[in-house]
Amino acid sequence: MTAGLDKFARLIEQYCPSTGRCDTDIPGVVLLRADKPMEPVNVVYQPSVCILASGEKTAMMGESVYVYRPGQYLTVSLDVPVLGEVTVATPEKPYLCLRLDLNTKVMADILMEARENNVVPSGRQPGPALQVSDAGPELIDASVRMLELLATPRDIPILAPLIEREILYRLLNGPQSVRLQQLAMADSKLNQVSRAIEWIKKHFREPFSVEVLAREANMSASALHQHFKAITSMSPLQYQKQLRLQEARSLIMVNAMDAASAGYHVGYDSPSQFSREYRRMFGAPPRRDVEQLRLSSSAGMVEVA
């Protein structure tokens, strides 16, 4: 396991030589690196698995906190707002991570075949949208072989899908099997909550009731609230608020929009309420927060999701 993890780290360092996000020629595979601890960053995580080779990172979803270390992986089963922070990283021992998008079609195909052969355990309760587990030598070995393909690009179209399938099979047969199976099943509670999340993402600027959202998810209001909270660690309205504030922050930072206009654009009628909730989430009023972000950016603090 230690030798495999060392090789995994060396490959990520080779193909991601500087801090930040490094896209690869393998579809769905991104490498992430940080050479020093990073400031907490609010981002929306998408369905993926993050396999850590070196360093340490903390992810906070609602009131739940997840820490993952070398030889562990974090899975994300829904689009969820997360506060992420690289907590352990040095130039000699950087934070190094491989992120692979979760392909639900491939996962469904694996489940269908695996269940015919009784090689994947089944269950009903999906659990939280984030979860951390130990990777094990088989998953690390498959990740190493995936990165080794970068040295022979002509092999990627043929071999990368086979290794991706192996990685997903290991995940579906691992400690998070029940929750990941729910992700691949169209009629699961996880996918019903996912439909509610997609609706919120499209209409986050608008007020809505849980009853309207429940109809979109084809659930009762009480069931939606219960499962939404269990999976995302927040209520639908809290989820909407986080999307609103992250979008407003982006408008102020990228488009140079003033705070009042940004708040109105994302659905706030009261500038004072917007400023109050913005400060509560980001730790400073809009103008000061954006100034701090720009200073961090100029100092080389690059976001590592």
TrEMBL record:
The keyword Transcription regulation applies. PANTHER family: ARAC-FAMILY TRANSCRIPTIONAL REGULATOR (PTHR43436), TRANSCRIPTIONAL REGULATORY PROTEIN (PTHR43436:SF1). Keywords: Transcription, Transcription regulation. SMART domains: HTH_ARAC (SM00342). SUPFAM superfamilies: Homeodomain-like. It holds the Pfam family HTH_18. Residues 194-292 form the HTH araC/xylS-type domain. InterPro entries: Homeodomain-like_sf, HTH_AraC, Tscrpt_reg_HTH_AraC_N. Transmembrane segments: none annotated. The keyword Transcription regulation applies. One of its GO terms (molecular function) is DNA-binding transcription factor activity. This is AraC family transcriptional regulator CmrA.
